[in-house]
Amino acid sequence: MPDISILDAGLALAMVLALAGGLLSFLSPCVLPVVPPYLAYISGVSVSEMTAGPEARRRILVPALFFVLGLSTIFLILGFAASKLGIFFLTNQEWFNRIAGLIVITFGLHFLGVFRIPFLMREARIDAGDQGGSALGAFILGLAFAAGWTPCNGPILSGILTMVAREADVSRGLFLMAIYSIGLGLPFLLCAVFITRAMGLMKRLRPHMRKIEIAMGALLVLVGLLLFTSSLSILSGWMLDAMDRLGIPLLG
Q1: Is 250 a domain residue?
Q2: What range defines the domain where residue 86 resides?
Q3: Domain total of the chain
Q4: How far is it, in rounded angstroms, from Cα 124 to Cα 147?
Q5: DSSP state, 182?
Q6: Residue at 133 is within a domain
Q7: Helices 232-245 & 12-27, crossing angle to 10 degrees?
Q8: 1 falls within a domain
Q9: Could you list the mean pLDDT of each consecutive 10-residue stretch along the chain, which spans 252 residues?
């Protein structure tokens, strides 16, 4: 468990952005359409059987949990590495903020459709072998899914890792990556629990994939501008003042 003292106002905005990034990653055209096939593969239950009854749903839940643990493990490792590099970034903070901000903005403009970056249009997949139906297999597939993650979602993860590196603190970095993992992993688990409703919701969301992509782009442009202008800490302070005036207590 992280030290509760890390949960200060300076981390509040980064937490909101990390959670939003995780949710948008799940809703992206790279992830949402493949959720039912992934659930079927890791549980050994066919897509048609998943809606058959409670027994099938119980068979889905445990592998889904281990799948999320697997991908979260990779994200936490990436957060640890980014936090360790944070000391170097702090000594070159002005240049790092500007370069990282421009890169993240570029990714955001790609999602908004201002221009297209070819390598972000491809999918990277790792074959984890025939691992369906076991908790260990689901965990391994989660590791593989995160390690060979679809490039079109990589920019959001890069933006979150950039914020993690700025923290230059392992506890805070891991905490941010845990928030990101919750944003991505919790909807996956909810889909496993409420698979019938989830599949219906996915069908309704399918025509709105472009709007979700635009939201991803807007979030990345926002993060990029905050980084480029070194405004992340300023905006966090503004949030602290606003919440204090509203009487909302904060830790730290």
Answers
A1: no
A2: 8-243
A3: 1
A4: 9
A5: H
A6: yes
A7: 110
A8: no
A9: 51 84 83 79 71 68 90 89 73 72 82 73 47 73 73 72 78 90 92 80 78 81 80 61 56 45
